[in-house]
Amino acid sequence: MDEPGHGPAGSGRVGLVVARPVRMLGTEPYFMEFVAGIEERLAGRGGSVILHLVPTPEEEAATYRRWADRRLVDAVVVVNLTSDDERPALLDALGLPAVLAGSWDGPAEPPAVRTDDAAPVRDAVARLVDLGHRDIARVTGPARLRHTTARTTALAEACRSAGLPEPTVVEGDYSHESGERLTAGLLAGDPRPTAILYDNDAMAVAGLAAARRLGVPVPDRLSLVAWDDSVLCELATPPLSAMSVDVYQYGASVARTVLELLDGAPVEPRWSPAARFVARGSTGPAPR
Which end of the chain is more exposed for a tag (fewer CB within 10 A), N or C? Predict the structure, then answer.
């Protein structure tokens, strides 16, 4: 989806810019479910989502400026929040109402639909500890993202509390290629992890392929857990355990916040649905 070629906003058009290569969006169903949740809630008011894909943060900022200049949207949803995020200030200066979606502990304005990225990591570590795992690694998304930092901190604290060694953390970019390459590197390390957590489904599926290629059986010698659950996880062999979030309802919560903002009504504080651990065939007891 791209920018419309007609008239000014005013009927509930909500802009969403995703700074990520288009090829990656096609292999990761998360954003499609998120947009569907927003669209369903907006549809009752005649609103719609304008999804624009850009390769860089600079082009994302340029898109906001263009939208504000041409009055193409009534509000913007901001995702993939970063530690030094300049977008809220930019959108305020442009006069574009905004709703933040994600890991956020900043000011109350603009309003945010927050996610808890720490508790699910602690839950996953507890499950792995119960299975006897001690050497845990993680393949993350980009380190600049707030939810990446929150998950990394939670993993380190959970391992420390359980008396485990410091976890090995390597940075990926959500792509299949980085998941495969980084998993191969982890499996060549010493000590080799017996469990790996991934920040999305695509990297986890790629990690499973890397383990198979290297002759490391899952889950007999290695347990894998994806953060985002999806059909990709369900159809893998073995099916991937995952931290599952109702992304569709998350999008619907964001849309409710957007509508309150546009109506000038009090904006209710909201959180995304909590992620829950779904155990499947990729997790098992730690090897002896």
Answer: C
Quickly tell me which residue has 């795992």 as its tokens. Answer: 133
Phi/psi at 274 (5° precision) = -70, 140
pTM (predicted TM-score): 0.91
CATH homologous superfamily of 13-115+246-274: Response regulator (3.40.50.2300)
Mean pLDDT of the chain: 92
Residue (of 225, 171, 170) closest to 194 by Cα position: 225
Query: Tokens representing 89?
Result: 């200030």
User: In order along the chain (288 residues), what is the average pLDDT of each group of 10 residues?
Assistant: 48 88 66 92 92 92 97 96 94 97 88 96 97 98 95 98 97 95 96 96 97 98 95 95 95 96 93 95 96
Is 97:262 a contact under the CB 8 Å cutoff?
A: yes
Q: Which two tokens stand for residue 239?
A: 């099916």
Which helix or strand (DSSP H or E) is residue 22 part of?
helix 22-27
CATH 3.40.50.2300 boundaries in the chain: 13-115+246-274, 119-244
